[in-house]
Amino acid sequence: MQTDFCKELGIEVPIFAFTHCRDVVVAVSKAGGIGVLGAVGFSPEKLKEELDWIDEHIGDHIYGVDTAIPQKYEGMDKNTPEELVQMLQDAIPEQHREFSAKMLADAGVPEWPAGEDDEVTLSFSAVQAQALVDESLTRPKCRMIVNALGTPPADIVEQVHKSGRLIGALAGRLKHGLAHKEAGLDFIICQGSEGGGHAGEVTSMVLWPQMIDAVAPLPVLAAGGIGNGRQIVAALAMGAEGVWLGSRWLVSEEAHAEPAQRESYLSATSEDTIRSRSFTGKTARMLKNEWTEAWEREDTPEPLPMPLQGYLTFDAVRRTSRYAGSGDCQKVAFNPIGQVVGQINETESCRDIVFQLLTEYTDALDHLNNLMPED
Amino acid sequence: MQTDFCKELGIEVPIFAFTHCRDVVVAVSKAGGIGVLGAVGFSPEKLKEELDWIDEHIGDHIYGVDTAIPQKYEGMDKNTPEELVQMLQDAIPEQHREFSAKMLADAGVPEWPAGEDDEVTLSFSAVQAQALVDESLTRPKCRMIVNALGTPPADIVEQVHKSGRLIGALAGRLKHGLAHKEAGLDFIICQGSEGGGHAGEVTSMVLWPQMIDAVAPLPVLAAGGIGNGRQIVAALAMGAEGVWLGSRWLVSEEAHAEPAQRESYLSATSEDTIRSRSFTGKTARMLKNEWTEAWEREDTPEPLPMPLQGYLTFDAVRRTSRYAGSGDCQKVAFNPIGQVVGQINETESCRDIVFQLLTEYTDALDHLNNLMPED
User: Fold this and answer.
1) What is the DSSP letter of A216?
2) Rounded to whole angstroms, how far apart are CA atoms A89 and A99?
3) ipTM of the predicted structure?
4) Inter-chain contact A206–B369, Cβ cutoff 8 Å?
5) Which of A209, A217, A305, B27 is the most exposed place for a label (fewest CB within 10 A)?
6) CATH superfamily membership of A1-71+124-256+352-375
7) Nearest beta carbon to residue B342 from set A193, A210, A368
């Protein structure tokens, strides 16, 4: 199952692990796949620290960095980070702030400690994204940059290419994949609606083959709904050059997650996720809870557009992550994950997960071959 | 690709064609798969006529019949068909009738000719379903009965088994598949959310493998999102014993469809469908149009529960089918189809479609084998 894209990157198996945890990056790369560090929400200092650790532990293996490089938000590339934060804060209605604060208080989620990391991170700003890309490109073992949302701007594409690295981007709609191709990207990550985080409405089964045909000969990595080796066979059978798994690592041994959040993931079925605008302002898949339901009701504020909703919920996201086990925190927590959550029922090491994926893959392929008549 | 379930039925390839058109049934069975006639909405007389024709044209091949055998609707198994229709008609609010009639009139859809087939068909009644099953079981070449909605009642399961035939049912949720197994059915048709008609929220990629594992050793037919051979490889790799395709035949040469409806299907992308309660009262996937949008608005009537909405829209369904090309009929027409609609862009014979599916299947399997290292 070594695809051409594996060979181009120099990895053994076409398993791409999207994760916010450096330990998962290292473990998957060492197991023959490639870890891609999700750096959205990281400050440049935080990214430097994480990449230092990865470089030190990953040996001769390679990795990638995923960030969110916006094409444009009106006015957002014209100011200093401080001015940007102020502009965003000013744009959030008081009613939204109060609603959000009350939900957290009612669920017994402790306040963030005053004075600790007071700075709001500019998750979706060009200034921030540029700093993250610059840092990543100083690392020889970082071989790919991924854009989580939209087509990256031409200057970033050029910068990454000049450094001798590959750049790709997520696409949940055909037209986004075609725009990425037009912009000169090297590969597309095509995510169906069952995937965790931001995704469109068309499912993996239908979207993958259409995307693969539409952007050919660009390599497509299949995302959304992959948690076992049978699903990897499905993806590669359609012509994907690799698979992009995010949800699968969230409860792995190496993942950083509070026990209460792990438990929410482990106990959820595939019917327990929802596509909601309540955390980022764009439709993203996550576990259903009182928070996601509250923002849907007619008597509550409408979620703001991205990036505003994300700044509004910055506090909710970090508090519900840190204090995942406090009070009724899980009722209002941000737990992004795909529908595959229903098939993830135990905690294993990333190495074991990769081994299982490969075993299941081989078994499924054997099964297919056994269905064919003998020559 | 001859699965055990193929062998049990005595068919060559595990392709199950769900269709309302007798010509498609015959063409697919003759091509090596098996046609399953969707008889929901047929009167017993109409079914008799269709099965006579099929029996005459299908040669030595076999087929199935799909109907909707309700477990229970309060009071619906206690009356004569005439009383039932009256009961349903009485339960529909005047506001709903007026809204529906106005939409059709505004779109320029002609009235149904007075005196022609004036009788309302009892699509979802036990009385009607029993008559359809009885008729089907008189036909030696009809080898399987499928229930489109829910677990069939125990007496029907027993009746079908005593006749030496197989009985199965659709399931869009794990718990439905488990209930079917408990009721002693012989196979499950597992449909993901991308499928046309009634479906749940979990997508095929995620639902199929879970269902296959949950109801084992019962055979599972994979439905929802299958329109080419690569998608069939995906289904069989996960352990499905066959594939159930509905959308794929809707614009085939053999399908009965007005040119305007065909054109609606041929020109639609995968983003043009919606899951809507506006025609049957249960969430079903169909092409988006003004009708589906109108029933979602806050200033319009809420769709009634099944079976009421279906009786309310009985007139809309048959008028928009018959007069598909009149006025703005397509803006209010009932066009049920899955997300695969986006990959169906030409009219072909069913025989050619089956041949293509098999060719694509073999090519995709060859591709998978080529990715494996040489021994």
Assistant:
1) T
2) 15
3) 0.95
4) no
5) A217
6) Aldolase class I (3.20.20.70)
7) A210
